[in-house]
Automatic annotation (TrEMBL):
InterPro entries: Tcp11. Signal peptide: none annotated. PANTHER family: LD23868P (PTHR12832:SF11), TESTIS-SPECIFIC PROTEIN PBS13 T-COMPLEX 11 (PTHR12832). Residues 1-58 are annotated as: Disordered. The lineage of its organism: Eukaryota, Metazoa, Spiralia, Lophotrochozoa, Mollusca. It comes from Mytilus galloprovincialis. This is T-complex protein 11-like protein 1. It comes from the Eukaryota. One of its GO terms (biological process) is signal transduction.
Length: 384
């Protein structure tokens, strides 16, 4: 029976099914006795109602699951692209030290850890004789930071630092009670004075006035942090012209990598951009219909893009920004706020001069005073 059912199903698929049981049995017998002839006959038979292959109606494969390394690599690429974009576009871009906010947990932990370290160092210094093992560790860290600040042409200075701040020699002096911590502190301050920018001269002058070891090393490390930030900003200024030349191709490459990662995850990386352009197209289409325009001149790609960019100036904060412009969202928001303020200012002045009329028409100082006071009010309102 199972063989008959299988042949019945096969005959049905080939369009050869018949309800006659005798023909079915005959077909079954023929299949068992003449398999080659049956195979040939079925190959040559064409069915007017061929069923589609099974895989046609199978849904697409599920999105590819990405590893953590792939996700982190994609995030790093976007971060680098955003940083390069800011450096190329913003002439005043500079790095600033990130300080924990007010009473944040991070700030409290940082203060507790630093206080514990310096208190432990102070206890060692108060011993008789003083225990200066902590000082060697600090000098090693200062040395590493100084070497990191040197430029390739500072060959002689690098050699000098390695000779004077030789940790093995310092350790030997410490073991033989010949270690003078003030000598090394003064030398470090002198090197900082040579390497720092003129804007840090006041900080160096304050360092030279400090005589206590703990406050001195605290200020030395604070000065090193400032100098590292200065060096980073100096490097940014130097590479900005070259980065501006290559930024377009670089951002294009990185964005293509981002889109590829999104596609592999089953995500449309341009979904918001398509929605943004579609809204502009619909707005122009409705406008053309209202004006009774018969030509498609208003629906050119340039017109759609222009309308789309204008819409960014009054963007709803609750909506996500288009992917292609998300790095410039802050700039568009600032421009939109300025346009809004100028619109309000012009409206207020127009209403004022239209209402009062001739008595204030020629008073230029009054107009300037009104403008300044209105802008102060508007700025205060926006900040709230």
């Amino acid at each position: 029976m199972e063989g008959q059912d299988d042949d019945k199903l096969n005959n049905s698929i080939d369009g050869e099914f018949t309800s006659d049981q005798d023909e079915l049995n005959k077909s079954t017998a023929s299949t068992s006795s003449e398999p080659d002839a049956e195979k040939k006959r079925r190959t040559q038979t064409t069915s007017p109602h061929r069923y589609p292959p099974a895989f046609v109606n199978v849904p697409a494969s599920p999105p590819k699951f990405m590893s953590l390394d792939e996700i982190m690599a994609a995030a790093a690429g976007v971060k680098n692209m955003s940083l390069a974009h800011e450096i190329a576009v913003d002439a005043n871009f500079k790095l600033e030290k990130l300080e924990p906010s007010g009473n944040s947990f991070e700030k409290k932990v940082k203060e507790v850890v630093h206080k514990a370290f310096w208190d432990a160092f102070q206890e060692k210094l108060n011993e008789d004789p003083p225990e200066l093992g902590h000082a060697v560790v600090l000098i090693q860290e200062v040395k590493d930071n100084l070497l990191a600040l040197l430029l390739p042409q500072h060959v002689r200075l690098k050699t000098q630092i390695n000779e004077v701040l030789d940790i093995e020699l310092i350790q030997q002096k410490l073991e033989n009670n010949a270690f003078d911590i003030y000598y090394y502190a003064d030398y470090i301050v002198g090197i900082l004075a040579k390497l720092c920018s003129p804007a840090r001269d006041d900080n160096i002058a304050k360092l030279k006035e400090i005589k206590d070891i703990i406050p001195l090393f605290q200020e030395i490390f604070a000065m090193l942090d400032l100098m590292k930030m200065d060096m980073a900003n100096f490097t940014i200024q130097q590479i900005r012209p070259y980065l501006q030349q290559q930024s377009m191709e670089y951002e294009k490459t990185k964005f293509e990598e981002f889109l590829k990662t999104q596609r592999e995850s089953g995500i449309d990386g341009l979904e918001l951009t398509k929605i943004w352009l579609k809204k502009s197209f619909d707005a122009l289409k409705d406008q053309a219909a209202e004006e009774g325009a018969t030509s498609p001149a208003m629906l050119t790609p340039a017109a759609i893009v222009n309308e789309a960019y204008v819409s960014l100036l009054s963007w709803d904060e609750n909506q996500l920004f288009p992917e292609t412009l998300v790095m410039d969202q802050g700039r568009f928001t600032d421009v939109g706020d300025k346009i809004h303020s100028l619109t309000l200012l012009a409206s207020i002045l127009l209403v004022t001069y239209s209402t009062v009329g001739a008595p204030i028409a020629g008073l230029q100082k009054l107009k300037e005073k009104l403008k300044s006071e209105i802008m102060v009010i508007l700025d205060g309102t926006e900040q709230k």
